[in-house]
Amino acid sequence: MLKFNKLVKKSLSLLFIGALALTLTSCSSKKGPKEYGQPAIYWYNKIAKEIATGDLEAADDTYISLESEHKNSPLLATALQILVNAHIDEEEYALANFYIDEYTKKFAVSKSIDYFRYLKIKANFLSFSSQFREQDLIYETQKEINEFMVKFPNSPYMPLVGTINARLAMAKASFDKEIAELYTRIDKPKAAEYYNEKLSKNWVEPKEIKEVAVPWYRALFE
Predict the structure, then answer these.
(1) Planar angle of CA 94, 95, 99, nearest 5 degrees
(2) Are 96 and 72 within 8 A, CB to CB?
(3) Is 48 exposed, middle or buried (CB count within 10 Å of its CB: 0-12, 13-18, 19+)?
(4) What is the DSSP letter of 108?
């Protein structure tokens, strides 16, 4: 009887091990074999396909394979470009800026560097989510714009950068105008005068400043 019990326990153990192995094998097959050692065009085409199907996370992973296996491939620049635009389209501006910085580091002397510098300005501008809470981002973007204007005066993207610059100037003026009015309401004339002076430097005619349309539920906290 004792031998029979041992035999049953051993059989159950073997069945458990076999089932576990089968489960692991099944999970592994679902993930598919790990890919490596592929030509650059393979990784590039895979990135394009993953972006087309909306799987940006997979495209990010595939870029790592392209970059690690083919550091000097000319396809890297194009892959970075489509990843930047894909993340901007999905409003993932931090990731877009990551790839822009990658391009800038790798291809600083590229003929397309002005395009990527413009994309960074565009991504920063589109990432604004509040009119009064992201002043540092306004200053940072204006700095990027000033550098762009100095380095790329003949860039075809200059009109677009100029438009963004004007809208940022209006946003900054709107911020100064709001603070000046606040100090006026609480009877702080010197502080109000200081911000009105800043306002006159940022925008020639304060009456031209358009109020930002803010939903009522957000306006309560602005």
Answers:
(1) 120
(2) no
(3) middle
(4) T
- Exposure of 60 in the CB half-sphere (CA atoms within 13 A): 14
C-alpha torsion 50→51→55→58, nearest 10: 60
Cβ neighbours of residue 140 closer than 8 Å, sequence gap 6 or more? 124
Question: Do 166 and 125 meet the contact criterion of CB atoms below 8 Å apart?
Answer: no
Alpha-carbon distance of 91 to 180, in angstroms, equals 33
The crossing angle, in degrees rounded to 10, of helices 158-185 and 135-151 is 150
Q: How far apart are CA 93 and CA 134, in angstroms?
A: 15
**91-144 pLDDT, tens per residue?**
999 999 999 999 999 888 788 899 999 999 999 988 876 555 567 888 889 999
Q: Measuring CA to CA, how many Å separate 58 from each of 14, 120, 123, 214?
A: 38, 23, 22, 36
Q: Tell me the pTM.
A: 0.68
> For 48-83, what is each residue's pLDDT tens digit?
999 999 999 999 999 999 999 999 999 999 999 999
What is the rounded CA–CA span in Å between residue 18 and residue 12?
10
Backbone phi, psi, residue 215, to 5°: -55, 145
pLDDT tops 60 at residue 216: no
